Amino acid sequence: MKVPSVDTARGVSQLIEQLKLSIVAYPAIWGALAAFWAWQFSLFQSPSAFFGGTPCGRGDVGLYTLLGTCAACVAMTCAHGRARRVLRAPAELAPVAVVMTASTAIGQAGSTAWPWGVLTSVAGLVGGAASAILLVELGRLFAQLGPVRALYVGAVGMCIGIAAGMLINLVTGVVRLLLLAVTPVVSALLVARARNAFAATSLFPMTSAVIGFPHKYAVTCLMQGVSFGVMTVLQGDELRNATASSGTTTLWYGAAFLVAILLLVTTVMISNLDYNHMIYRIAFPLLSVGFLLLVLAPSAPRLAGWVYAVGYCYMYVIPTCLNALFVRDFKVSVVWIVALSTAALQLGQLVGLFATGPLERVLGSVGAVAPDALACAMCLFLPLTGLMLLDESNPLTAWGAVRPSAVEDPHDAALRAALGGAGLTARETDVALLLGRGLTKRYIAQELGISEETAKSHIGNIYRKFDVHSQQDLIIKMRKM
Fold this sequence. Notes:
The chain has about 475 residues and is an all-alpha fold. It has helices at about 5-25, 25-45, 50, 60-80, 95-110, 115-170, 175-195, 200-205, 215-235, 235-240, 250-270, 275-295, 300-330, 335-365, 370-390, 410-420, 425-435, 440-450, 450-465, 470-480. Mean pLDDT is about 75; it is low at about 1-5, about 50-60 and about 240-245.
């Protein structure tokens, strides 16, 4: 039996400590993500949401909400793709929350009969567009954390969000409607609160670098979405036949998402894989195995869906970290990269949903077993795509080569060395790095386990040594180092 080295044990211990600090220091951020994910999970980010497999399932509402979110993200991607100097004021979250709540209530309480059917469709589209704005604001907060902390905070938020989503889908009647409608309000309030922990110049930078279109990243998100759409349709009969009152479908898929989060955190703690290998050697193969089980075990479709859901959720958290990497290290527009990755994922989901039906009919007309043929095709196509995308040479700033298992980002390591050379002590350097991320004195004290008075003393010494008088001035000077 191989005994872990001292360095490995120390690294795991440090990672666990980082996870604890992330939970304590950023409750508003993971709480906002949890509320937002519970809303998405109930409407269009679980297969059962499209086919009535749960009490909350209304396929028409989920589809129109998905269309609205996708359209808004495509529009934001096009609008911000060439922005060089952009100062974005904070989005007004109150009307966003009101629109999302109203559209959710109308969609869940309405019917498909005229004129309610039209109103329900419009409400889904408008609510989806509003959710895209809230999603971008969440991405703005995660960009302040960096790729490492974004992974931990994202994992915690999704765990709680999935549990909340399962609770919402298990209850019925007015209680279910109220719980689902209130989640956007909770998310918006927590986003507004989390903003106060960061300096305005950090959240809304004046400059945004223009980089080449990240084709590999976009194709990765697109393929994830396509596979989800195809799996949703292939499992449609199983989900339609699920007993709504039992709630077993909700619990089944919710458990898969929770297992995926545990797998993701475990992977980071015990391996030294970079994002490329996490995506193309773990997530994509899990998605592929889900389709393979549809063919090999047709009598157990839920098992196939469960394995697929583990891979899908494992993959879902990674773009959150990569978006933070693009914004923080490559200085791209938050709105652009968050909207781009989301648009690619949801466009793929729509393609998978709308293309699978016609493909089944075409394959069935030539005598093939349509569902098995599609499942086999996806089973082969996903790993082949992963092999093509897993290229050691990455011309676009090598984003996939970053290792989330590193306790400190490479950018922080270089800046730490520069700060040490400027005459700061080791503890003052720790404080300066957190100031550079926009954290306030209270959050810095929580992060480092020191009192607010001690943090204030360190901040005063840093300002004196750099000859600045505010956090904004310090951030500007640090960016020039």
